[in-house]
Amino acid sequence: MKPIRILSPALDLQGEVDNYLSLTFCRSYHLPGKFQLVTNRKVQNTDKLNINSLIMLGADTFKTGIIRHKEIKTNEHGEEILTVKGFTLGAITKQRITIPPADNAQDIIEANAETVMKHYVQRNCKDISEMEFPMLIIGDDQQRGEIIKWQSRYKNLGEELEQISSLTGLGWHIYPDFEQKKWIFDICSGRDFSVNQNTHPPVIFSPEFENISSQEFTDSLIGFANYVVVAGQGEGVGRDIVMLGSDDAGLDKHVIFVDARDIKNSADLSERGKVKLAEHQRIISLQSEILTQGPFEYEKDWDVGDIVTVQNKDWNLTLDTRIMEVEEIYEAGGFKLNVTFGSSLPTLAQKLKSALGEIKIESTR
Predict the structure, then answer these.
(1) Are 283 and 340 in contact (CB under 8 A)?
(2) Are 245 and 227 in contact (CB under 8 A)?
(3) What is the pLDDT of residue 344?
(4) Strand partners, 31
(5) Residues 6+ positions from 154 with CB-CB distance below 8 Å
(6) Torsion angles phi and psi, residue 361, rounded to 5
(7) pLDDT tens digits, 275-287
(8) Of 5, 3, 39, which Cα lies nearest the Cα of 20?
(9) Which segments of 200-316 are extended strands (E)?
(10) The pLDDT value given to residue 333
């Protein structure tokens, strides 16, 4: 199994653990990943696995996480088992909210998606002195992604980044830079390895290629919407209303209402509608256990965020889809990869949060 390096938040090496029971490390494209490490408490250097300590898998800076949970239990054999859990470094953005400038009700920016994301991180993690992360710096802005107009007011920063990322197809992460002794926030952009492009050799996951051992497919319209009615400021017949979305009719039209009284400029209502429709997309998800000895090598031929082709001819299924998550599992019995292609299924907590958010907007008017 790969050694696990233990680091201080200042990126000083504290020790290594290379004799553990299991490590599960999940990397995500639109939001922070997570990990769980299980080991015997008597193993050397486990005393350094403490809250806010960092772990790094081998020398891979993109597989670095911060410990947020620690527990010790005695098993039936009298062994003391230590479990630590946490998230990749991007999770620190969930510790901040978007604070608008003093003379503005909203923090509004119109620019490339990368510029927009870096603006909110710069302001809410660097520029406001009470909110600063001293160890964090922002990567150079390459102005990637489509032009969007975004406005935010006292929203969770990490959730805003996730929304922008999902809407525009750009990923983001925070990783350590040992030369500068800093944490770097930056944007990443997946490559296209699908069969419908001509730039790269295609990557196909299929039982026929013997690189998948199991699959689970979901196609769901629960929570789906393709048409939105956005209501801005005003009252009664004088209220600003914008309607947009699909031309589908009858059974194929799914309409939602969005209260957007917080938007002063009626020209911006369409943008709010597009964002809300992006939150209510059709869920097409394929979870697969990938055979590590297949024809395509992980992190060389494909990686998190890349677009690939997934096939199962018995299911009449062919998808050109993005790799949303990769879960790496290290155990004494070997190494496994679980991959999520396409949309991740929303959890009950996510559904409740979305519903309560809409209720809160209406109730505060």
Answers:
(1) no
(2) yes
(3) 55
(4) none
(5) 97, 98, 99, 100
(6) -60, -45
(7) 899 889 998 888 8
(8) 39
(9) 204-205, 212-220, 227-231, 241-245, 255-259, 283-290, 307-312
(10) 85
Q: Three-state SS for 217?
A: strand
Which is nearest to 294 in space by CA: 286, 302, 305, 284? Answer: 302
Strand partners, 227: 245, 255
Task: Give the chain's residues under pLDDT 70.
Answer: 344-365
The CB density around residue 356, as the number of other CB atoms within 10 Å, is 11
Name residue 78's beta-bridge partners.
none
What does the angle CA 49 – CA 173 – CA 306 come to, to the nearest 5 degrees? 120
Q: Tell me, what's the pLDDT at 40?
A: 96
- Please state, in angstroms and rounded to a whole number, the distance separating the CA atoms of residues 294 and 300: 13
DSSP state of 352: H
CA dist., res. 44 & res. 42, Å (int) = 6
Task: Locate 314 and state its tokens.
Answer: 């018995």
CATH architecture entry for 190-223+281-365: Beta Barrel (2.40)
- What would be the CATH architecture of the domain defined by 96-189? 3-Layer(bab) Sandwich (3.55)
pLDDT of residue 284: 87
pLDDT confidence of residue 286: 85
Q: Which residue has the tokens 């030369």?
A: 179
What is d(CA 225, CA 276) in angstroms, rounded to the nearest whole number?
9
